[in-house]
UniProtKB/TrEMBL annotation:
Domain spans labelled PhoD-like phosphatase metallophosphatase: 71-434
SUPFAM superfamilies: Metallo-dependent phosphatases
Source organism superkingdom: Eukaryota
Identification of the protein by name: PhoD-like phosphatase metallophosphatase domain-containing protein
Domain Phospholipase D N-terminal stretches: 2-57
CDD domains: MPP_PhoD
Gene3D superfamilies assigned: PhoD-like phosphatase, Purple acid phosphatase-like, N-terminal
Matches recorded under PANTHER family: PHOSPHATASE, PUTATIVE (AFU_ORTHOLOGUE AFUA_6G08710)-RELATED
Pfam families, per database record: PhoD (PF09423), PhoD_N (PF16655)
Length: 500
């Protein structure tokens, strides 16, 4: 229980082999709830030991939680596009209890396929091909684990993860991806490997390398699961990609998707996971658990991407699966479920919205009246956002302003910064602090707190300040609905050195 490993709670021996890429996992038992523990591995019959790691157990279900629980939320970390400074910044501040990763922990592309890493000595392995085989995925995870800040975060925090699409293939769905499908032609073009085998390889290596349990030994594709953090919140982690998703945007089929967008059978999750998800929401509320926090990949709010009067939607997100979306929002509305917060990644930009069931009651974007929850969408750790890899701050501000003007429930958006956000959760409120990382081309500890948002118990919307702005204090990046942003008030902090 101590960092010097003098007071040992439990120990034992474990074997590994090439069958699991020589990774080692131990599930310790008999631990106290909501307690910090330290751990270390030693090679048998030698003096070679690992660095000391730190982890923390969760409160037991229904326990009262006496302190705020902190979560650091990340997504979309592409190795050749920059250093994973966001992981190190959050870890060095040491303000949270657990790390959440909402997917795209790795990317499948060869060097140059989505970012050039040679100039930063960040070339993903293997470099010469998009990964598909078991060995390919193992080499890719190993190369990502050479990033010092990713290693530091894993060493000091327990991680709760789900995958998005790039852990397998771009825009993966149950019978294919943007580059593969279940046809003979696809099998031949991929070099004699099927999409089902690629999925199996990707999922196997994910469970080998990531510090999580395999959820169901009889259902290897399952990663969706629920964590009860005392009686403070239910953390419901979904898979809207790999498990049983209906056909998605494959670039050539947009007109077809428009035609089937409202079909009742279309689902991001498949019927088994959907039924489980709705039951988790309902039962959590019946237990009087204070908050329901849904960790998943995609934006559920109505977001239009077109300019001016264009109404272009993202067919790869919840907007492309409107029946599934409506069933989800109906569950919240019909069962009068309060305090629901959706977390999202995927977009490489920050989106903060009141959660609105369009067409069911009136919604006032100025006051938030009519909202049934909140959505917090995070930017990428390194993956480029709407203004691209080398976009300017001014160009990002223009894009952000366009987004908040064209989307009614969207209260704040940032298109420029990479980064992450942290949640502070207690029985009275949830605070969400969004951080921007200004430089990912070198390893450094610099970051800016861009904005803070609040959700009060029972209000089901973002808190408005005395000026009617949906923000706590000042926002210094992005664009804010019904409010002003103050970029000159930004404070650059170096988590390696202190304030600058």
């Amino acid at each position: 229980m101590d960092q010097k490993m003098k007071r040992v709670v439990t120990g034992g021996e474990v074997w590994t082999s090439s069958d699991v890429d020589y990774t080692v996992k131990v599930e310790a038992t008999g631990l106290r709830p909501y307690t910090t523990y330290y751990y270390q591995f030693t090679v048998c019959d030698s003096k070679n030991s690992s660095p000391v790691g730190r982890t923390k157990t969760t409160p037991r279900r229904r326990d009262k939680v006496k302190k705020d629980i902190g979560l650091a939320v990340f997504s979309c970390s592409n190795y050749p596009q920059g250093f994973f400074n966001a992981y190190g910044n959050s870890a060095r501040k040491d303000n949270v209890d657990y790390v959440l990763h909402l997917g795209d922990y790795i990317y499948e592309y060869k060097e140059g396929g989505y970012g050039w890493g040679w100039s930063m000595n960040r070339i993903p392995q293997p470099p010469d091909r998009d990964i598909k085989t078991l060995l390919d995925y193992r080499k890719r995870y190993a190369s990502y684990r050479t990033d010092a800040d990713l290693v530091y975060s894993h060493q000091h925090f327990p991680w709760i993860t789900v995958w998005d699409d790039h852990e397998v293939e771009d825009n993966v769905w149950k019978a294919g991806s943007s580059t593969m499908n279940n046809t003979e032609d696809s099998f031949i073009k991929a070099g004699g490997i099927s999409i089902d085998q690629v999925k199996a390889n990707a999922v196997r290596v994910h469970f080998e390398w990531m510090p999580i349990r395999q959820v169901d030994m009889d259902d290897t594709l399952r990663i969706w699961r629920n964590f009860e953090i005392g009686d403070l919140f239910s953390l419901i982690m979904l898979d809207t990609r790999v498990y049983d998703r209906s056909i998605t945007d494959l670039s050539w089929n947009k007109h077809y998707l428009d035609l089937i967008r409202d079909e009742q059978s279309r689902s991001l999750m498949g019927p088994r996971q959907e039924t489980w998800f709705y039951r988790q929401l309902i039962e959590s509320a019946k237990r009087n658990t204070k908050w329901r926090i849904v960790g998943q990949q995609l934006l559920i709010s109505d977001i239009f991407y077109g300019k001016n009067e264009q109404k272009l939607y993202n067919a790869d997100a919840w907007d492309g699966y409107r029946a599934n979306k409506n069933r989800t929002l109906s569950t919240i509305l019909d069962h009068k479920i309060k305090n629901t917060i959706f977390l999202a990644g995927d977009t490489h930009a920050a989106y903060v919205s009141d959660l609105v069931y369009t067409g069911h009651g009136k919604y006032d974007p100025k006051s938030g009246s009519g909202a049934i929850g909140v959505e917090l969408g995070g930017t990428g750790v390194t993956s480029p956002g709407p203004v691209g890899q080398n976009g300017t701050f001014d160009r990002g501000a223009e894009e952000s302003q366009r987004f908040v003007e064209n989307n009614t429930p969207l209260q704040w958006q940032d298109s420029y910064y990479r980064g992450y956000y942290e949640l502070s959760i207690n029985y009275d409120r949830v605070h969400a602090n969004f951080f921007g990382v200004p430089d990912i081309r070198t390893r450094n500890g610099k970051e800016i707190k861009l904005a803070t948002f609040e959700i009060l118990d029972g209000k089901n919307k973002l808190t408005r300040n005395e000026k009617g702005e949906p923000v706590v204090g000042k926002a210094v990046g992005g664009a804010l609905k019904n409010g002003k942003v103050y970029p000159d008030a930004a404070v650059l902090v170096d988590t390696m050195k202190g304030k600058k």
